[in-house]
């Protein structure tokens, strides 16, 4: 699904990924990066806050899980990324919510640590209807 979604991304698109630990946020982002033609391995930027890749478009992959103090965010210069020329893919966006563009897309993932859910994920896509129709076609 990630690589299909990637076909419809334009510069400046911001997507947030929410969901419990291990729900598959990074895995989905890897698929999007693959679809954007990024060949290098995509790893979670938990300690660096942002990883940058160059594919069909520049990609900025954020992970704000570890952020405790929002002054770290001010140092990053988030607006340059969020209103820039690349695609921003953001895990754990709660603390940057106020800075996000109004038209950002939201993907929620859910996994459960119970029998029967080992290989199952629930996804909720808050994306434009015309994009939704294309990716499920
Ligand atoms: N759609 C899926 N179906 C089955 N397993 C999946 C799926 N997506 C991810 N997984 C598995 O779940 C585990 C956690 O995935 P991942 O690291 O992508 O989660 P995450 O939401 O990014 O976690 P974190 O909150 O730690 O950042 C991995 O072992 C991955 O292979
Ligand atoms: Mg992750």
Could you explain the architecture of this structure?
The chain is α/β, with parallel strands linked by helices. The protein has helices at residues 2-6, 25-35, 71-76, 78-82, 129-136, and strands at residues 14-18, 50-54, 58-63, 87-91, 105-110, 122-126. The chain is 26% helix and 23% strand. It has a 6-stranded mixed beta sheet, covered by helices on one side. The chain binds adenosine-5'-triphosphate and magnesium ion. Residues 19, 21-27, 44, 91, 119, 121 line the site of adenosine-5'-triphosphate.
Radius of gyration: 15 Å
Query: Assembly type of the shown chains?
Result: single chain
Mean pLDDT: 95
Helix content range: 25-40%
What is the SS-derived class? alpha/beta
Major beta sheet, specifics?
6 strands, mixed
- The succession of helices and strands, N to C, reads HEHEEHHEEEH
Descriptive keywords:
Rossmann fold; 6-stranded mixed β-sheet; 6 strands; 23% strand; binds adenosine-5'-triphosphate; binds magnesium ion
Explain briefly what this protein structure is:
The protein has 137 residues and is α/β, with parallel strands linked by helices. The protein contains 5 helices and 6 strands.
SSE diagram, text form:
Blueprint: H1 2-6, E1 14-18, H2 25-35, E2 50-54, E3 58-63, H3 71-76, H4 78-82, E4 87-91, E5 105-110, E6 122-126, H5 129-136
Parallel strand pairs: 1-4, 1-5, 3-4
Antiparallel strand pairs: 2-3, 5-6
Residues 25-26, 44, 63, 91 line the site of magnesium ion.
């Amino acid at each position: 699904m990630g690589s299909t979604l990637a076909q419809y991304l334009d510069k400046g698109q911001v997507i947030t990924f929410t969901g419990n630990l291990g729900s598959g946020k990074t895995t989905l982002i890897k698929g999007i990066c693959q679809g954007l033609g990024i060949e290098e391995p995509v790893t979670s930027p938990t300690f660096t806050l942002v990883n940058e890749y160059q594919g069909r478009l520049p990609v900025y992959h954020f992970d704000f899980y570890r952020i405790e103090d929002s002054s770290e965010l001010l140092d990053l210069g988030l607006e340059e990324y969020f209103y820039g020329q690349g695609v921003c893919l953001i895990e754990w966006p709660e603390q940057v919510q106020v800075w996000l563009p109004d038209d950002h897309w939201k993907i929620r993932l859910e996994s459960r640590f119970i029998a029967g859910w080992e290989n199952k994920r629930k996804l909720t896509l808050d994306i434009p209807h015309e994009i939704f129709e294309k990716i499920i076609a």
